[in-house]
Amino acid sequence: MPDGHNSGGPGVEAILAPFRGIEPSLVLVIEDADGRRVAGTSSDDVPVTVIAREIAAGPLAGGRVVAWGSALDTPLAHATVASMAVALGIAHTVRAAGIADVADARRIEQELALGRELQRNFVGLVGPEIPGYDLACHYEQAYEVGGDFFDVFRLVRRGRPLSVVVADVTGKGIAAALLMAFARPLIHAAIDNTTGPADALERTNRVLRERRASLFITALCGALTLSTGRLRLANAGHEPPLLVRRDGSPIVPIEGSAPGPLLGAFTSLHLVETVATLDPGDAVVLYTDGVTDARSATGERFDDARLLTAIDEARGGSAAEIVESITGAVARFQGGMLAADDVTLVVIGRRAPRIRRRAI
Questions:
Q1: Sign of CA dihedral 313, 315, 320, 321
Q2: Lowest mean pLDDT among 40-44, 118-122, 227-231, 242-246
């Protein structure tokens, strides 16, 4: 079935464009309230088995975002459809805001509230249960909708390594949230279809450059081989991950993980991967700058030193205890001040083997 007239306005193609970089494992189509195709990543007929989300506002209100493909039953597919439906509504209400009356303002408020609810559902994903490892995550938006995101998932390849991404859009509010909604499934798809973290970020960068977004993204991407604890990392402008050794040695950034260029800023990133090994009892902490840039009532930064202290106080504990130590320290430091930026934390610990005592 051919595409119908683009009755959704000029924002539809801009919202859909980044998703054209996703592999055919996830096909996306936007329909109007009469079921006519407005745009899509494929011209194929819509099959019977799909997932769909209604568009709540704008010229396409009553229409839907539809997806199908081999990735249909994954959390990523559901998150993508939900985020696109909200993005279409938010984009319309933002364009209308310049001449907004009370009804327009209420629609914007409703869309932002829905966007926040959806982000809490699909950004704040709980990591998978992995024998021998301990995972904990935290995500808190500074505004109604945020620009941080993370993903922790098993790859479908030999050994089923664990992939982890922590990223931050260089902006705040609606614009950052929309770019986050685009970039998260793009990075996920790139990781699934490339040889490693650096290749995945390079591929994502090419798509973002084609879109010519006005905002950029910092991203840290890693692949963990579970049997050995070998962690491959690539860093596109992000805070380096912190390595917490069981032996009590100083907590330091992983060697060679200094940030490279941001996603979307340059034609090619030329990223170099680095490798670290998590021994039993070790942990790695990934975070966004919303942690270290948190401010007290006097305007002082939380900074790196306080972060290291908070991690050290929970050293030897579970991943959740490390996260709780950091978030608790940040909250006490802010003293009731509103957060100026989104806060994201991912902690991965490799469990130490239990020592079995022989019966006497």
A1: negative
A2: 118-122
Domain 125-350 has CATH 3.60.40.10: yes
CA separation, residue 345 to residues 27, 113, 242, 244, 273 (Å)? 31, 23, 11, 15, 21
172: which 2 tokens? 């705040």
What would the two tokens of residue 150 be?
A: 């993370």
Angle among Cα 55, 114, 54 to the nearest 5 degrees reads 20
Backbone angle region of 175, left / alpha / beta, with phi > 0 → left and psi within -120 to 50 → alpha? alpha
Amino acid occupying residue 117? E
pLDDT (tens digit per residue) in 104-127: 545 555 555 555 555 455 444 566
How far is the C-alpha of 40 from the C-alpha of 44, rounded, in Å?
Answer: 9
Alpha-carbon distances, residue 171 vs 41, 212, 216, 233 (angstroms): 27, 15, 8, 24
Radius of gyration of the chain (CA): 21
